[in-house]
Design brief:
The structure holds two protein chains of two kinds. Chain A is mostly helical. Chain A contains 15 helices and no strands. Chain A has a domain of 207 residues: MetI-like fold (Orthogonal Bundle). Chain B has two domains: 227 residues, Rossmann fold (3-Layer(aba) Sandwich), CATH 3.40.50.300; 101 residues, Nucleic acid-binding proteins (OB fold (Dihydrolipoamide Acetyltransferase, E2P)), CATH 2.40.50.140. The longest helix of chain B is centred in the middle third of the chain and has 18 residues. The chains are: A mainly alpha, B alpha+beta.
């Protein structure tokens, strides 16, 4: 998109002073590198897209090709509305909704917990606050994969298997978010706290009225990272969700590729379309929040 | 409106540093008091204790008739203007000014009325819907003032509010703040390290040094009768000339010259003479060797030495002087004597 913009801009500037404009060898080289790079990233995606537009049988006969077929609609219907399991409940739409709940719940939960932890550490005179922070920080060394068995047991005992809270809550304690918010809060001028105290804002009011709005851009940045991270969770959802209507996209696709076995024609179109759909929301989140993110960097609001 | 009194107020930080030594003074209702001193002298700490942002280690602080040692800042009936304005960056000017009122659960019609009144007083009407980042330094300063005055506090506290402004704006805001305080008649405590601000704005000046009060007095008292050599050298630009001399009842001997002094002190002293109290006089007893003349338009400063002592002399623009030897006389009754050892006024 930026390339197109740049091209448009260049075209606009070229017109009034066409004579002076000369293409330098360096520019050509730069663009060559960029074009090769973007092809490197895009071609696999395009191949996947191509596969979703042709009948599955065609796929087996000719393999991937450059020819765009006419099966996109049909594959889309199959992917989004046709159940792939036994219960008939894990349609693409259902999985998409589950993924969104996981991604958003995961991101918001992490942001909320991280902000509150950082708030306590930075603004309150706690005994051992620094120690508490470093203890939180060291949990970075203990990702979910390390503690997956005890976590599973706890969730199971609490009866949260196959629930959204079971999917989300064990994941949301976040050292990363706590760390970033701590750094950010420490950069908020002390005088703002004092002014708020004199203005009669208690701890909760200060947090809600002042700190949260000030952290907007930071929250947006965290949301990008955490949403994508939550969306792409695979291992944990696989463990705690056994009922098909709780499947997320990322794990549901795997289930479809499992049904490729047997004598049926594999559902290439459907699986690949789901894969594409699974890619879109994280991309959209990044694009949407990116402008906020940049604004936060350039427009110093403190 | 309220009087403020401190009784043996002391501040010791957890690391053992005594920022404010036991200090007591009384500020009458409606007075504009300036706390002045070099950085690290404890003036800001004192102000922050009065605001309630720092705990008072020992002593009693009263605002009005109420002891407020353990009262929350929000309940002390004070308003504070900070050095960096401390405006809430995400709120518009209107919301910034109204925030304190909103937290006090005041009816919104009343808030609107008060905000309008304050913005009118400060000329902020057209900026009410802007964010602080869209305002200039002087305008931000006014918003900070507005935030303070809408609350109708009993006491204004200013923590070096002008030090982030450029010199011209500073002069202007100095007058505005002083005029506003006169009009509202609110007791005010103003902290600054700038002795010009202290002299021009204060009803009374409290000069602090090293966590101690050096002198409390009107600007004239502090200037003409400094309580110590510290005050003498801190207040006034250029500072008072301080030279070692020998006192004998009723006069003081500096170098070869005998100067009349209204003091019974004898023995070694420090002699203080304000630069403008030394007058070029063909028949003067002091001979100064002038090295540099500083031209300041309305007046000139002569820098040089008498004997081995560096001196500065302040003369009007019409006085015709050059470098080299300049004979001087001392204005009668304009000398201060300080104890040579302790630096205290004799």
């Amino acid at each position: 998109m930026t390339e197109a913009n740049a091209a448009a801009l260049a075209a606009a500037t070229v017109k009034p002073r066409r004579r002076r404009r000369r293409i330098r060898g360096g520019d050509v080289l730069d663009h060559l590198v960029l074009i090769v790079g973007s092809l490197f990233m895009l071609v696999p995606l395009l191949v996947v897209f191509q596969m979703t537009t042709v009948p599955d049988v065609e796929m087996i006969r000719t393999g991937p090709s450059l020819q765009i077929g006419d099966q996109l609609d049909e594959n889309f219907d199959k992917a989004m509305f046709e159940a792939s399991g036994f219960s008939g409940q894990n349609t693409g739409t259902r999985m998409l909704v589950n993924s969104f709940i996981l991604g958003i719940g995961f991101a918001l939960g992490k942001i909320l917990i991280g902000m509150m932890a950082a708030y306590a550490i930075v603004y309150f005179r706690l005994r051992f606050a620094t120690l508490a922070f470093w203890v939180i920080f060291t949990t970075l060394l203990l990702p979910l994969e390390v503690r997956i068995l005890p976590s599973y047991e706890v969730v199971q005992k609490l009866g949260m298997l196959n629930t959204y809270q079971g999917l989300i809550i064990p994941l949301i304690a976040s050292a990363t978010a706590t760390f970033f918010f701590r750094q950010f809060f420490r950069s908020v001028p002390e005088e703002l706290v004092e002014a708020a105290r004199i203005d009669g804002a208690g701890p909760v009011k200060f947090f809600v009225d002042i700190l949260v709005p000030l952290s907007k851009t930071m929250i947006a940045a965290m949301f990008i990272i955490m949403f994508v991270f939550g969306w792409n969770q695979y291992l944990w959802p696989t463990m705690v969700t056994t009922e098909e209507d709780m499947f997320t996209l990322v794990r549901g696709i795997k289930q479809i590729t499992q049904t490729l076995e047997g004598t049926n024609v594999p559902e290439f179109g459907r699986a690949n379309l789901l894969a594409l759909i699974a890619v879109l929301p994280p991309v959209a989140v990044v694009i949407f929040f990116q402008s906020w993110f940049v604004k936060g960097l350039t427009e110093s609001d403190k | 409106m309220a009087q403020v009194s401190l009784e043996a107020v002391r501040k010791v930080y957890p690391n053992g540093f005594e920022a404010v030594k036991p200090t007591g003074f009384h500020i009458p209702d409606g007075e504009f008091t300036v706390l002045v001193g070099p950085s690290g002298c404890g003036k800001s700490t004192l102000l922050r204790m009065i605001a309630g942002l720092e705990e008072i280690t020992e002593g009693v602080l009263r605002i009005g008739d109420r002891e407020v040692n353990d009262v929350d800042p929000a309940d002390r009936d004070i308003a504070m203007v900070f050095q960096n304005y401390a405006l809430y960056p995400h709120m518009t000017v209107r919301k910034n000014i109204a925030y304190g009122l909103k937290n006090r659960k005041i009816a919104s019609a009343e808030i609107d009325r008060k905000v309008a009144e304050a913005s009118d007083l400060l000329g902020l009407d057209e900026y009410l819907d802007r964010k602080p980042s869209q305002l200039s330094g002087g305008q931000r300063q006014r918003v900070a003032m507005g935030r303070a005055i809408v609350r109708d506090p009993a006491l204004f506290l200013f923590d070096e509010p002008l030090s982030n402004l450029d010199a011209k704006l500073r002069n202007q805001m100095r007058i505005e703040i002083k005029a506003l305080q006169r009009r509202l008649g609110v007791t005010s405590i103003y902290v600054t390290h700038d002795q010009v601000e202290a002299m021009t704005m204060a009803d009374r000046i409290i000069v602090m040094n090293g966590g101690r009060v050096e002198q409390i007095g009107t600007p004239a008292q502090v200037y003409h009768a400094p309580a110590s050599t510290f005050v003498a050298s801190f207040m006034g630009a250029p500072p008072m000339n301080l030279v070692p001399a020998e006192a004998s009842a009723g006069s003081v001997r500096f170098g070869q010259t005998e100067i009349a002094a209204d003091s019974a002190a004898t023995g070694p002293v420090t002699l203080g003479i304000r630069p403008e109290d030394l007058i070029p006089d063909a028949a003067g007893p002091l001979a100064m060797h002038v090295d540099i003349i500083e031209e300041l338009g309305a007046h000139r400063l002569l820098h040089g030495s008498i004997g081995t002592e560096r001196m500065t002399v302040h003369v009007g623009k019409d006085t015709d002087v050059g470098t080299g030897q300049v004979p001087l006389s001392v204005k009668a009754g304009a000398v201060s004597l300080f104890d040579a050892r302790t630096g205290m006024r004799l």
